[in-house]
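Quick one - inputs below.
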Amino acid sequence: MRKAIALGAAAVFLIVAALISALVGAADLNPVNVAAALAGQVPFVHVSSGLNQIDRAVLFQIRLPRIVAGALVGGLLAVTGAGYQGVFRNPLVDSGTLGASAGAGLGATIAIVYLGGLGPDVVPIAAFAGSLAGVGVASLAGVIGSARGISNGPATLLLAGIAVGLFLTAAQTLVLQQSTQVIQQVYQWLLGSLAGASWQQVTEILPYSAVSATVIMLHARYLDVLAVGDEEARALGIRPGLVRATVIAACALAAASAVAISGLIGFVGIIVPHVARRVAGPSYRIVLPLSMLGGAGFLVLADTLARTVVAPSELPIGVVTALIGSPAFIWVLRGTRAAGT
Amino acid sequence: MNPLKRLRAPSTVLAALTALAALAALSACGSSASSAGSARIVSASASSRPTGPGTFPVTIAAPGGPVTISAPPTRIVSLSPTATEDLYADGAGPQVVAVDQTSDYPAGVPKTTLNGTSPNIEAIAGYDPSLVIAAENEGGLVAGMKKLGVPVLVEPPAATLPAAYAEIEQIGQATGHAAKADAVVTGMEAQVAADLKKAGTTHSDLSYFWEVSASPYYSATSQTIFGEIAGMFGLKNIADKVATAASGGYPELTEEYIVASKPQIIFLTDNDPGDGGQTPAIVAARPGWSGVPAVRNHEIIALNDDVAARWGPRLPQLVAAIAAAVESASKPGS
Amino acid sequence: MIRVSDLTVTLDRRPVLHDVTFEAVTGGWLSLIGPNGTGKSTALRAIAGLLRYTGTVFLDQTDVRSLRGRARARAIAYVPQEPVLPPDMAVGDYVMLGRTPHLGYLGMPGGRDCLAADDAMRQLDVTRFTERRLGHLSGGERQRVVLARALATQPSVLLLDEPTSMLDIGHQQHVLELVDGLRRSAGLTVVSTLHDLTVAGQYADTLVLLSDGRVAAAGQASAVLTEDLIGRVYGADVQVATGPDGRPVVSPVRKGVAGL
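Output:
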């Protein structure tokens, strides 16, 4: 019962955040007109919005896709973070683990430094590919690392991921030094931003997002079983290695999709699952969907603040998520039992 | 790098050295009573532009503090693409032995792997310079070169046209080409004045968006030299609403604000393929931008990305491009 | 029925079990005894399919090797010596994990699963803890919850590795009586390791004494729990008497101390 209430509350939070986000912005659109315009989109409702052509363009081509992209990215990052936390039985991992962030950063940097001639669309594709490659390399390193002798499967993989991530970040710095002109461009991308999000981007990553999020959530029960350790999970008839590989692959795809739109945004993947656990308990059958809804609402809220607090200027969204996320994290830690999560 | 390797002296440099020495001797003998001790101070303001060939030693009141150069520099290292352009416009090209990796104009400059934003003292010293010119004092450049007895002239990004002129002058003085520098500046002023006269200065009905990068959108306000130049035509900069000290003249703007401001002209400084690739066609195709006047009237101007990022002798090109846009945008029916 | 033949296990290039053979009849209770490190837990883990081994393990007429993971897990429930108990997991959810082998790849627990889990919790008297977190239970309560999870699987074979180490004498007796009752009524075959020799002798109808990874003796309690064998295998001085139920009672003896 409590779980249903939590899910409902998260859904409401997302909807409210999205509505508020639609009503405010640097373009100073009259909220009443905006509400009317939105209402006019509902089938069979005929309301005239009183918005001129440019304002309609701002609302439907610039503001709304940004809100939808924010919800999508936030949901993906949060569910990926939760998925990784379940796979590794470690509360400190987030969506960029296993080289996903570092790989995306390297891919984007290579695109900006060397492939600039191919146009600006190369960067998201390179980031997507780099993110997947990062996870691939880290997984390979983890497999090699545990090939001999007894090893703690997930811990070895996690350590391999850290090592690979550090390597990729170093490679990224090396590439960057080749062309100091584009340092600002690269760091802008690294800071993460939903500026310039479009319907086209949303539709492009929608299939990957849907598939990966579905696969992750279908494995919720298995993540719960993994919580009692690999050996007991095997005694219960589960194949931990297979579950782990499947969930990691899905998480990698989800993280890559998010990164392709927005660059690297931190905190969402690590904080939101913890808050979800605090509210509704540790079972992944509730934590995964709750994280997705909560992450979506959180990022929409953060982006709204990022683009309105110093309007018409913007704050980098990574800064906003950290500013909100840090105190929230400390509050969560305060309530967590000393016995661990 | 073995410094001895850099000690070769081409015959042209020898010839220039002899000529300079002769000139210096002549001017020292013939100097008027007003320049006591044959040391001249060059100030940063445009109103006291001294004329005449360079006299050494000379102390330059550079923006970062006075710099004394004791003899005409024969081996100049430039760590700033703008300074490189200034040097060659002032006729000091033959004295330049190395320029940084981002200096690419004029064609044929001795480009090296030197880095102006994180300078490597030893690498610079490897070129055995007698003068280093940079746009910023990063990584302890000035202090480091001081230990080696090499003066560093720091000429930071100019915020106004007069400041840009003054830098060209200072570089001319520092390298013994004061007269040429004067001529360059005079020419620039004339060109700018002509463009202003032709296009007019009262276009306050026209607003513009100066795009430095896209997604996220960075712009330049009137606090920058580019904004100042556009302002000379009377144009209104939509980014001026965000005139905080923190943004340093280059604030990030929300996309919807840009569109809702309905600018009549959009200037792109990120259209080079290697620099962002935002061509006018791509900008016009951005979702939600079709109603923007600049898009409707095809007033999206792709500026030369380098010219629009430097404050050197090619500034009149920038002024001309802006003037052309202004004239086009203010034609009746736009 | 569980029949283990020539079970040999090598861990870390060290041989742990050599040609171990024993058999527990359906509904029977077989207990492995022996000194620390002699391979008792290893034998259980091998039967549970968690280790590589040579030799065969037969469950009734089926070679366990031929069973797929879930089929084996439905038939054999394994309770380790130190189970992992996520402190924030609710008891009800934990016990429901025992139903995992019965759920399809993407299946969710249904009515039958809930009934089995509830039944197991009731039998182990942990129903009132359903909503409580594992971290908030005492050692004894936790051990009962772990057993409940195993029973929720409704297996044919129950492998118990030191199931009463955390329980006081009263709870220990209660749990062992419960297991005994289950195996008689449901035909559950129990293979356990118990370090207390007397208790092992009281409940198991077959004892297998392991020494250095080999079977030193196997049979009824009275045959295996002899002073001579225990002295040889454990290197301990004991006195074996006969208890009121006719089963041996093993008491440690201090040599050289005058009787009172």
